[in-house]
Amino acid sequence: MLIKDYENLIYEINLDNRDINVAISNIYTANELGIKTIIFFSEKLDLISGDLLDIVSEIKSDLTSDVSNICFGLSFDEITEDTMFFNDLKIAGFDFILLPENYEPSIFIPFIQEAKSLELSVFIKLGIFLDAQQVKFAQKFLNLNIPDDLLKEMKNSENQLNVSLKFAKEYIDFLSILEIDGIFLIIPQEKNLLIKKYLFNNFD
After folding, report:
1. Alpha carbon distance 135, 160 (integer Å)
2. In this predicted structure, what is the pLDDT of residue 3?
3. How many other C-beta atoms can be found within 10 angstroms of the C-beta atom of residue 107?
4. Hey, which CATH number is domain 10-201, 3.40.50.720, 3.20.20.220, 3.40.640.10, 3.30.300.30?
5. DSSP assignment of 67-125
6. Which helix (H) or strand (E) holds 201?
7. Whose CA is closest to 129, among 157, 96, 92?
């Protein structure tokens, strides 16, 4: 499981505010810049049209072009039964999915199992919270199902960040059992180096 700084540049294409022709242009621009990992992002997966799947399929099948070795992934904001169409992604040539931040295993485990059965790599987002106030905000406004026990423990602690880091480490240990391929850490910029030092020093 990848738990270190990613060494390659990643280009994100937001499908919510770009038409398909712009997305195509972005793919070739990224390739010219030497960027070989592209993530398509959409809040709503109904925007992942057949046109996009066809474009990725065409690019991946053109073995005469160096664009064919681009690694394509898909990121989305919400996990529902409607989002499990990974077979279409695999056929088109996608390489991985990036699951949204989620703290209820019963919700996302079926998606991991489905993706793995198709030999798609699976990454998941994981947030690091500086204090209880951030947890409350994420619960209320981002609809994240963060355990109330974490919020309670952080409220009662003199070092709330340490409680958050301990929770993150335990959660990553759990995710590794599920054979997640990597973690996309969402780290507050003001504590970036401190958090990375703690996490990276606690994993092989």
Report:
1. 11
2. 41
3. 13
4. 3.20.20.220
5. GGGPEEEEEES---GGG--HHHHHHHT--EEEEPP---HHHHHHHHHHHHHTT-EEEEE
6. helix 192-201
7. 157
Distance CA 125, CA 137 (A): 17
Check residue 45 and give its pLDDT: 60
Residue 82 has a pLDDT of 59
Q: Are 183 and 126 in contact (CB under 8 A)?
A: yes
**What is the distance between the alpha carbons of residues 5 and 193, in angstroms, rounded to a whole number?**
11
**3-class DSSP state for residue 151?**
helix
Kindly state the tokens that stand for 174: 């759990």
CB neighbours (10 Å) of residue 18?
A: 14
Give the span between the Cα atoms of 125 and 136, in whole angstroms: 18
- The rounded radius of gyration (Å) of the Cα atoms in the chain is 18
The number of angstroms, rounded, from the C-alpha of 179 to the middle of its chain's C-alpha atoms is 15
Please report how many Cα atoms fall inside a 13 Å half-sphere around the Cα of residue 153, on the Cβ side: 14
Locate the domains of the chain by residue range: 10-201
Structural contact between residues 54 and 33, judged by C-beta atoms closer than 8 angstroms: no
Q: What is the pLDDT of residue 198?
A: 54
Amino acid at 80: T
* Mean pLDDT of each 10-residue bin along the chain, 204 residues long: 54 78 86 90 68 87 82 83 76 92 91 92 91 94 92 95 92 90 80 57 51
- Element (DSSP H or E) covering residue 39: strand 37-42
